[in-house]
Amino acid sequence: MLETFMIKRKTSFNERRKVGFDTNVIIDIILYLETEKYIINLFRDTDLFYIHEISRDEAIEVLILKKDYSKIEAENQINNVIKKFNFKIIPRDKNDQFYRTIKIHKKDAIILSGWKKEGINLGYSQDNNFINACKSIGIDAIKIPTFDKVVERKLKDLFKLNKRR
Fold it and tell me: Which of 24, 40, 50, 116 has the fewest CB atoms in 10 Å of its CB?
């Protein structure tokens, strides 16, 4: 059974969107083709994509420690995603103190501070706390479901359909 679904954009901008991606979204893009397709379908050609230097480093670390990638494999995968999506890397600003005003884990606060400084107007994450922190500093944020949640939802729907028959 072939299932189709439509994704509607929740926000609209008259200007070029500057879109930030949290670490967990980058990891899912690497691990799951469906996430990559989902991301591609959400955006316009004029959108600019950003990841923070910390997110890049965290994603490499997760791939190595939790997904058994070698350091070279992890770095290559991250670099391929950066190139494919034309991500701009936001460097860590050691003089920035704005992060201290954001009530969230320190690394996430530094990421968000960098996003704010760069003018990111839309953020994507799978972390509710990160999304709430985005909104608290004036950045629109949307939760992208994890691949596991999408599969779980589809399986539940499939079983419900089979029970009705």
Answer: 40
